[in-house]
Specification:
This protein has 215 residues and is an alpha/beta fold. It contains eight helices and seven strands. Strands 1, 2, 3, 4, 5, 6 and 7 form a seven-stranded mixed beta sheet that branches. A hairpin with a 5-residue loop joins strand 6 and strand 7. The longest helix is centred in the middle third of the chain and has 25 residues.
Amino acid sequence: MKKTLLMLITLLSFTTVVNAQFEGSKQIFESPKLKDAIKIHKLVAILPFEVKISYRKQPKSFNAEANRDQEQSMSKSIQASMYTFLLRKRADYTVEFQDVDKTNILLKKAGMLGKLDEYTRDEVAKVLGVDAVIGGKFETEQTKTEAGAIASAVIFGGFGGKSGTGTMFLTLNNGGDGELLWRFFKTMDDNIMSSTDDMVERMMRKISRNFPYKS
């Protein structure tokens, strides 16, 4: 009993580490042309994210169609969360960000929505009427079942347990020629207790000092 209690106390002491989503490696690329290019940017669009959800051990109840629906839903959720974050901090940036609803409507009218990998970034920027585009990719590999993650959350006093791993990519491409100006890469732990808004909030706080349009 004492050994079990000691183990539980030890586990609880690490809740902060377990709950941290951004303990992995970080990489940032900046083009030599970045500073000159962003000086003339006024309007920037945030594209729907490319999302890939996979499982280390595929659940027995796995449904490919439902998984695709979840990926598509999360794609727009991350896009919307990032727009909300940037909108709240608009005074901190040197550009305006296009409303994501307008972005998606224009992409849909042009037949690009869901097919962005078939077009160059300058083609996308031209359709949207923006000076640059922010794109992104989120990949997650689930390592626990949701029930297992919830059980961990109970053990850890409601802080949530690690349920998977993931990688987040952010890119900024110039609208005129489509050239890559900036790229951010981060590995993270995925946590069932964290919403998409929380994930984006943490990510943006991490990169805020390196975000190209920071005034």
